[in-house]
């Protein structure tokens, strides 16, 4: 069944081993008292560490269901709505900001979800923990657009990241992008095509992708969202 954050430009402080470049703008906001209590109470049981050995996803979730990865879960609205309606899928939602992961933890508790996990950290670090061909879908919804030409090397959809996404996706798996920045989706098509591990792009919005506050803000500002997906084919492009 198919359901139809990274390279940034300064090395992460204290991360001389990975030499990663950020694709996000760090924003720290304090949690309210209630959400802070939820976060502290639930994070150990429902979180995955960004660093560590290869993950055994069947052990993480206690089943062999397909696993989806949401990169940049924002406020967590999609993850909280997806989990209860897709119990035969597992979801890992990652974000660098605590509020989104805390909101998802709150949703896990309120809806008694067992198919959702959160990661607070950088997706480029987390990707190293996934075995080859271990994910069914990867979602990149409304990533930081980095609109200035000198910033675009920080975008998430770029050759080295797409290469890693191709590695972790199963053959027949899906890479999804949603953005309201035309330059972003047009250049992403070129980047993904150059990888040769994906079929031609299709333009289609899945029914389960709800309208988030970020998308609504763009609509109010006159921007139109575009949804694209690519299916992982049997080719394997290797890093030269």
Strand order of the largest sheet: 3-2-1-4-5-7-6
**Which CATH first-tier class would you pick?**
Alpha Beta
Number of domains: 1
Helix content: 25-40%
CATH topology: Rossmann fold
Number of DSSP E strands: 7
Shape: globular
Instruction: Count helical runs.
Output: 8
What portion of residues belong to β-strands?
A: 15-25%
* Overall pLDDT confidence: 88
Radius of gyration (Å): 17 Å
Q: CATH architecture, please?
A: 3-Layer(aba) Sandwich
Strand pairing plus helix content: what structural class?
alpha/beta
List low-confidence stretches. 1-19
| CATH homologous superfamily title | Vaccinia Virus protein VP39
Largest beta-sheet characterization? 7 strands, mixed
Instruction: Determine the N-to-C terminus distance.
Output: 34 Å
Order of helices and strands: HHEHEHEHEHEHEHE
Topology, please?
Layout: H1 33-46, H2 57-61, E1 66-71, H3 77-85, E2 89-95, H4 98-111, E3 116-120, H5 123-126, E4 135-141, H6 159-168, E5 169-179, H7 182-195, E6 202-203, H8 213-220, E7 226-231
Parallel strand pairs: 1-2, 1-4, 2-3, 4-5
Antiparallel strand pairs: 5-7, 6-7
Helix pairs in contact: 1-4, 3-4, 6-7
């Amino acid at each position: 069944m198919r359901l139809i954050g990274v390279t940034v430009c300064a090395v992460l402080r204290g991360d001389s081993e990975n030499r990663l470049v950020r694709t996000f703008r760090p924003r720290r906001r304090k949690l309210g008292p209630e959400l802070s209590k939820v976060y502290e109470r639930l994070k150990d049981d429902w979180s995955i560490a960004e660093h560590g050995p290869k993950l055994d996803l069947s052990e993480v979730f206690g089943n062999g269901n397909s696993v989806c990865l949401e990169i940049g879960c924002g406020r967590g609205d999609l993850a909280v709505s997806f989990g209860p309606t897709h119990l035969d899928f597992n979801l890992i939602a990652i974000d660098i900001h605590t509020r989104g992961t805390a909101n998802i933890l709150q949703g896990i508790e309120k809806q008694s979800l067992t198919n959702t996990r959160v990661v607070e950290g950088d997706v480029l670090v987390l990707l190293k923990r996934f075995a080859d061909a271990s994910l069914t879908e990867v979602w990149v919804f409304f990533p930081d657009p980095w609109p200035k030409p000198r910033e675009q090397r920080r975008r998430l959809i770029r050759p080295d990241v797409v290469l890693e996404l191709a590695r972790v996706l199963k053959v027949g798996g899906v890479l999804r992008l949603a953005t309201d920045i035309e330059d972003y989706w047009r250049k992403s098509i070129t980047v993904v095509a150059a990888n040769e591990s994906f079929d031609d792009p299709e333009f289609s919005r899945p029914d389960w992708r709800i309208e988030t506050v970020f998308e609504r803000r763009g609509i109010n500002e006159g921007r139109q969202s575009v949804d694209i997906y690519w299916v992982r084919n049997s080719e394997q492009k290797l890093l030269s």
